[in-house]
Amino acid sequence: MAETSQKALQQQILIDDSSIPDWLLTEILQRLPVKHIFKFKCVSKRWFILISDPFFARLYSTRINTSLSTSQPWNLLFRYLYEVRIVPSSMIDTRIALKQSQDFSSPGLSLNFLPYSKHDCPIKILASSNGLLLCCETFYWQKNYYICNPLIQQWIALPKPPKAIKSVAVGFICKDGHYEVIRFPTANYGPSNTLRLETFSSETGKWHCSIVNCPVLDYYIKTDSPVVHYNGSLHWLEFRHSKIITYDPHSGTNTGLHLMNLPDDKQSEHLSLLGVSRGCFRYFEVTDTCFGPRDLRVWVLSDYDAQRWCLEYRIKFSGSWIDEVNEFIPKDNFYIFPLALHPHEFDIVYLGYGGCLVSYNLGTRKLDVVHRNFYSHQLLAFVFSPWPTTIPQPFW
């Protein structure tokens, strides 16, 4: 009896916070990991009110940004593999987190909460924006789209788009609690310079179809390179004319697609990608594929309106690798391809090299192996928002 009373007293002491003022409890909660904060909203009505207050979110974001010195947590996401694979930034160079890995299920990031990942169906990560991911079940004939926050495991399914299209270029923008999904065909071979563009808006809960102008008749978009949201517009690499296709969904009457120039001295047509590092728009390419000298080159867009590019790095692969790399990667007949730019460090890029995922420091010329036996061509640098973006509940 005495033992039962003691346990009840201990439980009461643990949950009785009536003597703690709101300001002190807020200070305590701000220092908890963000993944746990959302679970603690269920502790009591008082905790729910404090954590749900926008003031708490602003305080938490300010503290995170100050402590991290502008380097928000981020992950490398594998976009199109048949398992959901994620490389956490805190574990780069140590291991890859596989779906259903017990060793990583608690502290890490997973997409297992999405409905079709439970049945081992392929989940495709199409784009990210403001801490949210846009996913789909299939690569071709996309119809079932999901928007999710992998940190707090919240997700919604979008209504199916009005028309079935075999291959689409997809963009995703989330801002101020509102999000949009934009899609249109990846290629156009017809005689007309107009195309059908479909936009889903969370404000209306519906897909809207419009006919927009396209600056070229025979464009072809690289879907293996992630769409980049920068300066209010979406950017896709265009293959056939070696351009960037851009679209600004909020440009008023001027709502067509536009072309943007790539660097004049670029060489690679296939092994290239766009990205953003520390707020700068960059173009990253590897020249050649298998034999002969190979160059790694990175440009930064110094003037967006004038489309002026500045070459930051040009590195010849021959002689640039450290000796220990040759212990496990053959010297001849190897394949190199760009995978991602580091979102916070100008000097670090990620490459596929000799069947490995490697990080390469452009300044020190040091190469580190992240993972062996790696052959994927699609990675996405996913940066968490300082305060998790919640998805408005659907009304459709």
UniProtKB/TrEMBL annotation:
InterPro entries: At3g26010-like (IPR055290), Beta-prop_At3g26010-like (IPR056592), F-box-assoc_interact_dom (IPR017451), F-box-like_dom_sf (IPR036047), F-box_dom (IPR001810). Coiled coil: none annotated. PROSITE patterns: FBOX. Residues 14-59 form the F-box domain. Pfam families: b-prop_At3g26010-like (PF24750), F-box (PF00646). It comes from the Eukaryota. Gene3D superfamilies: 1.20.1280.50. This is F-box domain-containing protein. The lineage of its organism: Eukaryota, Viridiplantae, Streptophyta, Embryophyta, Tracheophyta.
